[in-house]
């Protein structure tokens, strides 16, 4: 789907959040410099039109570094796929914040 783009990159379609990404509490709790650690996870979504999302994709280094014909084909196919499925891409988002008191 995204030739030349490693699957472990944040915006790759196959990238998924893993348990390791939410394991901050144990890391902070194990640090002597902090106390009362708390992790807050905020889940929400952003809606993108085909034009908005392909515009965003075009700014990513992995996409910008593709040769022009490959980049143009990728962006066109992504835009066509979004349009073919209702014209809006709903992107699930996660923001994680770790709060702790320095001791």
Structural description of this entry:
The protein has 103 residues and is of the alpha+beta class. It has a domain at 36-102. It has 4 helices and 2 strands, in the order H-E-H-H-H-E. It is elongated. The longest helix is centred in the C-terminal third of the chain and has 17 residues, at 68-84. Helix 2 runs antiparallel to helix 4 (68-84). A two-stranded antiparallel sheet has the order 1-2.
Characteristic terms for this protein:
103 residues, alpha+beta, two-stranded antiparallel sheet, 4 helices
Quick gist of this model?
This protein has 103 residues and is of the alpha+beta class. Helix content is 35%, strand content 30%.
Helix content estimate: 25-40%
Largest sheet, strands/sense/barrel? 2 strands, antiparallel
Mean pLDDT: 84
β content, as a range? 25-35%
Shape assignment: elongated
Q: What's the arrangement of strands in the largest beta sheet?
A: 1-2
Ends apart, CA distance between termini: 49 Å
Number of strands: 2
Number of helical segments?
4
List the uncertain runs: none
User: What order do the helices and strands follow?
Assistant: HEHHHE
Q: Over the alpha carbons, how many angstroms does the gyration radius reach?
A: 18 Å
What is the fold's blueprint, element by element?
Elements: H1 24-29, E1 34-49, H2 50-58, H3 61-64, H4 68-84, E2 88-102
Antiparallel strand pairs: 1-2
Helix pairs in contact: 2-4
């Amino acid at each position: 789907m995204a030739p030349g783009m490693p699957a472990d990159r944040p915006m790759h379609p196959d990238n998924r959040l893993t348990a390791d990404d939410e394991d901050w509490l144990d890391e902070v709790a194990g640090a002597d410099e902090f106390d009362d650690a708390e992790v807050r996870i905020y889940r929400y979504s952003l809606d993108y039109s085909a034009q908005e999302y392909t515009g965003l994709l075009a700014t990513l280094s992995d996409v910008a570094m593709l040769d022009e014909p490959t980049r143009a084909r990728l962006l066109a196919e992504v835009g066509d796929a979004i349009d073919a499925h209702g014209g809006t891409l709903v992107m699930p988002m996660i923001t994680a914040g770790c709060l702790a008191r320095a001791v």
